Amino acid sequence: MYDETPKKFDRIIAILIQLQSKKIIKAQDLADRFGVSLRTIYRDIRSLESSGVPIYSEAGVGYSLVDGYKLPPVMFSKEEAVSFITAEKLMEHFTDINLRKHFQSALFKIKAVLKDSQKDWIESVESKMAVTPSTNFFNKDIPDALEILIESIAEKKQVILTYESIESDRPVQRDIEAVGIFYENNFWYVLGYCHLRKDYRQFRADRMIAILLSEKPFTKQHKELEYYRQKPDTENKSLVRFRIEKEVAKFLHFNRNFYGFTKEIKTKNYVEMHFEVDYINKGMARWFLMFADWADIIEPEAFKKEVRELLIKGSNRIKN
Questions:
Q1: CA angle 201-203-208, nearest 5°?
Q2: What range does the domain containing 61 cover?
């Protein structure tokens, strides 16, 4: 008979680490993480309690360690130790300057508790990894943009942005209540309630000219970030459909997300792609021209017109 004792032991230790990493954790979250039933989690919690770990529980809320209880120093496997280097390489290029410094400081403390063999592992791969970003994610003149936004969310205080949108000729001041931060399509964004527009908007980090944490508290109770990101917004959007030959379609998997891609339908020789766009614009039409000799526009007529006009203008310039 298979002995599950080692597996159970590892899970209980992992639960203990989880309890220290969060103020409160729900039994269902633990069950989902470890792929076990709620009953199993309840048994594991009782095992910890019987071992002398002081756990406080509240029905409908979750579990937490009694304030002041500390675990012994955490030991890392060599694979976990190497994962820190991967994170460090990403942090060097994908975050603002101040947050990067904080991470480096924390990483020094982590490295200090590693075994010598683990330090050797890190040194052997550290110089063999490199990350080269394709764009600048933040304005170099505001090195603490992410730090301020994170503090704004945690403290529920508004931020004052000086923001230059792509459509505007000059920067505009925006007072926002930050709901969350996310990375998408090669850019960092903050999504928040904009007092100027009286609605939720998202702002690209590289277009922020200045940022300041305000003393004004939030005026609204905001839902989780994913609620606003997944909320359908088709009121002012147009459906664009085209079909493209299969051997070319595979090369569009990355760029298509920039243009509102929603789904694809595969047939024997073609892939039909669907897009929801805010308006028919020459940006998407110019992108389409890159592979126009392999594709057919299904709808709408307005998109066909945009592509046709660009072709005519380009042809005339070549002639002249």
A1: 145
A2: 5-65
Tokens found for residue 188: 């960092």
Res 228: pLDDT: 86
Looking at this protein, which amino acid is placed at residue 272? Answer: E
Q: Would you say residue 134 lies in a domain?
A: no
Distance between CA atoms of 103 and 35, rounded to whole angstroms?
Answer: 31
Is 181 among the domain residues? yes
Count how many domains the chain has: 4
Average pLDDT, the chain: 84
In contact, 181 and 228? CB cutoff 8 Å = no
Domain CATH for 41: 1.10.10.10
Same domain? 224 vs 247: no
> pTM for the full model?
0.59
Residue 126 token pair: 């550290």
CB 217 within 8 A of CB 180: no
Instruction: Calculate mean pLDDT across residues 61-65.
Output: 86
SS3 101: helix
Place of tokens 């943009």: 145
What is the spatial distance between Cα 205 and Cα 190, in angstroms, rounded to a whole number? Answer: 7
Residues 261 and 311 in one domain: yes
User: Is 137 a domain residue?
Assistant: no
In a domain, 135, yes or no: no
Higher pLDDT, 159 or 125: 159
**Cβ proximity of 244 and 233 under 8 Å:** no
Nearest Cα to 239, choosing from 253, 260, 270? 260
Cβ pair 222, 177 in contact under 8 A: yes
DSSP 22: S
Distance of CA 99 to the CA centre of its chain: 16
What average pLDDT does range 247-254 have in this prediction?
Answer: 87
Q: Are 142 and 98 in contact (CB under 8 A)?
A: no
Do 224 and 276 fall within a single domain? no
Domain boundary residue, one of 65, 90, 115: 65
Q: Residues 149, 226: one domain?
A: yes
Q: Find the farthest-apart pair of alpha carbons in the chain and give their distance in angstroms, rounded.
A: 86
